[in-house]
Description:
Mean pLDDT: 95
Number of domains: 1
Helix content: under 10%
CATH class: Mainly Beta
CATH topology: Jelly Rolls
Order of helices and strands: EHEEEEEEEEEEHEE
Amino acid sequence: MKNIPFTFDLLPGRWIPTEYDSHLKRTLSSMQGQYQNASAYSALLEQGDRLLYEVYELHRPQIAGELLHGVSVVHPGLVGDEYFMTKGHYHQVRETGEVYYCLQGQGKMVMETEAGEWAVEDFRAGNVLYVLPKWAHRSVNTSLTEDLIFLFIYPGNAGHDYATIEQQGFRKLVLHRAGAPLVVDNPRWHGPQGK
């Protein structure tokens, strides 16, 4: 971690920061219970613990005033007819937002609030997505051939709440249907009160 202002490069084609402090790899086994088709999930896992996405982080203090940032790469693929995606999370400090800048690929950002609102926005190279405070969010790669790569920036004190999503999932799923992504209701979604 640097104690003076700094720069780093994102080289086109790979988009991985030229400098980073940690490299997180999320595999299929870390997404147990997140895909609707449990038999398709199990069958794919039997073929090997596939790498679904990676996160390259530049460390900063996890305090108010700092901005945590890095690059995520969501690889292409399907579990049944559901695209590879990130775990998704709320921020522990609900009153914090996040900015995403898509560097490569195409996808969807699935979002919702605990109050019942939901939205699904397109990700495409060159666009910027702002996730409002109080909104859970999950990135989905809707290409079957190309990585979805984006830069993320969020407040240092935001934290991550993965557990809420692991327990209840998202209200909406993004499925591969007739050669294109289709947003549908999640039949297993029950909400925080079991609704």
